[in-house]
Amino acid sequence: AQTVTQSQPEMSVQEAETVTLSCTYDTSESDYYLFWYKQPPSRQMILVIRQEAYKQQNATENRFSVNFQKAAKSFSLKISDSQLGDAAMYFCAYRANAGGTSYGKLTFGQGTILTVHP
Amino acid sequence: DGGITQSPKYLFRKEGQNVTLSCEQNLNHDAMYWYRQDPGQGLRLIYYSQIVNDFQKGDIAEGYSVSREKKESFPLTVTSAQKNPTAFYLCASSIGTGGYYEQYFGPGTRLTVT
Description:
Chain A is an all-beta fold. Chain A is 0% helix and 51% strand. Chain A contains no helices and twelve strands. In chain A, strands 2, 5, 6, 10, 11 and 12 form a six-stranded mixed β-sheet that branches. In chain A, strands 3-9-8-7 form a four-stranded antiparallel β-sheet, with no helix packed on it. In chain A, strands 1-4 form a two-stranded antiparallel sheet. Chain A starts with a strand and ends with a strand. Chain B is globular, with a radius of gyration of 13 Å. Chain B is mainly β. Chain B is 0% helix and 49% strand. The termini of chain B are far apart. Chain A binds chain B through residues 4, 6, 9, 31-33, 42-47, 50, 52, 91, 95-98, 103-111, and chain B through 31, 33, 35, 40-45, 48, 50, 58, 88, 90, 92, 97-100, 102-103, 105, 107-108.
């Protein structure tokens, strides 16, 4: 079974600084996607960024980028120029692309609470 | 505006009662999902449906039931057999179940059972 682990229950960063959130996963499949979701205090889940396992280039969305290390099964999220609105719970998630027993399912990590200090 | 609605936002029930949580989407998505969120455990999949009149158990289906009679609706019933039903419940949908497709989430329902 696939597992996703976020080892940092809480992180903090000063406004305008950079922070990296860690995520590791375990799978025997080769074709999959990885995601970072943001859950602000409103509890509305928002997709931040996604990465396809077959793409070597790290995904980037404005101030958000990932460091995807497939061999190490690591998928960290870097937030640059942190803003007060970035404060939220961040979830790493895994999803098989096709076939396999986990087809269509998102498997989430435990989450990391990010606090942004002004 | 297209999106997913869940009602009500807060729900209170007495122990031993069944309760049904509503989830409606107008995104014309084929796939729909129910997740449960508990503190410190992230989200866990309860049930999912890839197409109307078909659904599969997720990781924690015991004590729950679903139906998918219409494409836009995927209600979740929390039965009295669910031992610890107090949690935050999130509904999601996606165009398909392939890995690329983004799952869009509803605002959630907080269920408290006493």
